[in-house]
Automatic annotation (TrEMBL), chains A, B:
HTH lacI-type domain segment(s): 2-56
Residue ranges of every copy of the HTH cro/C1-type domain listed in the record: 3-50
Keywords, sorted A to Z: DNA-binding, Transcription, Transcription regulation
Taxonomic superkingdom: Bacteria
Keyword flag Chaperone: no
Gene Ontology terms for molecular function: DNA-binding transcription factor activity; transcription cis-regulatory region binding
Species per Swiss-Prot/TrEMBL record: Anoxybacteroides tepidamans
Pfam family, one: Peripla_BP_3
InterPro entries, per database record: Cro/C1-type_HTH (IPR001387), HTH_LacI (IPR000843), LacI/GalR-like_sensor (IPR046335), Lambda_DNA-bd_dom_sf (IPR010982), Peripla_BP_I (IPR028082)
The protein's name: LacI family transcriptional regulator
PANTHER family assigned: HTH-TYPE TRANSCRIPTIONAL REGULATOR GALS, LACI-RELATED TRANSCRIPTIONAL REPRESSOR
Amino acid sequence: MTTIKDIAKAAGVSITTVSRALNGYSDVNEKTRQKIIEIAKQLNYSPNTLARGLVMNKSKTIGLLVSGLTRESTKDNFTFEVLAGVNQYVSEVDYDMVLFSTTSTKQREKTYTQLCRERRVDGAILQGIRVDDPYLQEVVESNIPCVLIDIPIESETVGYVTTDNVLGAKKAVQHLISLGHRHIAMINGYEFAFVSEQRLKGFQEALFEAGLPFHEHLVANGAFKEERAEQEAVRLLTQHPEITAFFCASDLMALGVMKAAKTLGKRIPEEIAIIGYDDIILASYTTPPLSTIAQNKFAMGYEAAKLLIEMLEGKAQSHIKILETELKIRESTVKNHG
Amino acid sequence: MTTIKDIAKAAGVSITTVSRALNGYSDVNEKTRQKIIEIAKQLNYSPNTLARGLVMNKSKTIGLLVSGLTRESTKDNFTFEVLAGVNQYVSEVDYDMVLFSTTSTKQREKTYTQLCRERRVDGAILQGIRVDDPYLQEVVESNIPCVLIDIPIESETVGYVTTDNVLGAKKAVQHLISLGHRHIAMINGYEFAFVSEQRLKGFQEALFEAGLPFHEHLVANGAFKEERAEQEAVRLLTQHPEITAFFCASDLMALGVMKAAKTLGKRIPEEIAIIGYDDIILASYTTPPLSTIAQNKFAMGYEAAKLLIEMLEGKAQSHIKILETELKIRESTVKNHG
DNA sequence: ATAAAAATCCAAAACGTTTCGGATTTTGTT
DNA sequence: AACAAAATCCGAAACGTTTTGGATTTTTAT
């Protein structure tokens, strides 16, 4: 493995000069710089980032800390798309990304801060963390720069990216209302998710603005799980037969509701209209295809990485990035659309 | 950031002793070791892996090199599941994983070897690489330990994990034959995939053993793409109306064939039976649900990581790992199954 | 009590890079 | 020609570890 020292010897200069030549400093003659570059290429040199990181005290590496990257979680590829987005930006600016997964065999009893410091990441992106997760506490206290996805905490070292969940939910419900629905139920996620709170708010606002009453008993907790949502939908539909539409806080839960409707022999969308949230791949493949509020998860990852690295390099204007959502109308709300 | 030196000072010993105490060497008194551990905890010490990696000349980090981790590729979550599996094993043995994506903005004109050496990964896992990919050449020549997924190359430093694609394809086709189909078409992937070759072989073997003739013109190239498969299926069905069943080398292509059948007004499975390969999430959500040969992609990632790290630590028996596949019978081949 | 053996400790070098402060050479000005 | 200024180079220290080869102390055996 050739080092800077080998190059120095071959070029007949000091290692200082080699370093400065390769890093584009101006106090080295252009002729010798060319020679050094040439030799470096010949010797097939590649810099040792460990050594560099050690002396510069930064690694040009960011950590992506996700929660629940298990075999089962792959159905909902939210995590994956975010990851792909992060990866995209990171590779554009020549950083690296290392993946930390928290729940996987929790025996890894390292704290968030330890993980980051040990692996010398310059900063971290956190995805899928719950509001009550102990990690979250640490983040705010530690001084490691990080950006959160879908959790609105801001400080000197903390930023976040999210979508406008209030507006997103509102658009979904307004869509249902515009179709003539008056008794709309909602299947929400669990209480420890910030987005759940927001989407409920959007749900209420849409009803209010349309002059419709809000009924607490038409909102159920689906815990972001397909089966759970199915059960709740069955319960709601039997207890409140006036319901003609469902707004679900995730597509996965909407799938559960679709199952429930089928079990109860209700036709979609004629008897029950269903709209989800996320726009996962599955959404366009179900029968009928699922209407939903699309979040650009790839963009969320991309923007999170961008924000983090801007923060690291001290050129972040704001620590907050809020993305748009898009209403996708498919056949679970409107028959024979398109 | 506290270092080993700080601990040494606080404990009144040399840094050598601190290092050896913390790393469990036997030539340090148990009493002083306890004291050192205590102090380290108090000072909230975490080791600097950069420094350690520098001197030990290894980083306890492996690279996952994937091809085509783009926004679009998320439909087929093969990559993601492999990644989750790799991550799982890696975190069990306290390694780290850094992700390299090749196609994303190809401007990153670094070679495979450069990438690995620069980031000081101890080894790499390659997924989604085509047989004709320039990277592949490098791997065999470089001396960086690596394991390939679904490409059977073996050497001192190279291993691979794959599934038994011949047998898998055979099982799929035997299933179709057992249902009475005699005119079976195959939609294969592109020619630069090793698995395509294998699956074709399995297709032929199954026909042969059942005493059925193999017809070249019933095999089409779907390039692993949904749309392409759809077109080919339409062509085949119109040119060869005797076809009653399709074996597809991927689920994504099977989806295309399903669309084709629907367009042509053919009922599934009564008029056309379809079986895929992979068992992607979508497979169980289509109407009708898709029969397929399931590959445990998570396990592939897990085993790849395991193999690689065993190779790195010099305790790999074999450099080859071949996993089982499983026939999943759903309604695209058998009506009202279950 | 003494020598040998075992246990416990440590100084210094090494890993490959960046950077500080200054040294040397070249160029420009008069 | 002489000096100042600019351009170009370099030695040595530093980053935080591990490890080598030995030094020192304690224990054991006689």
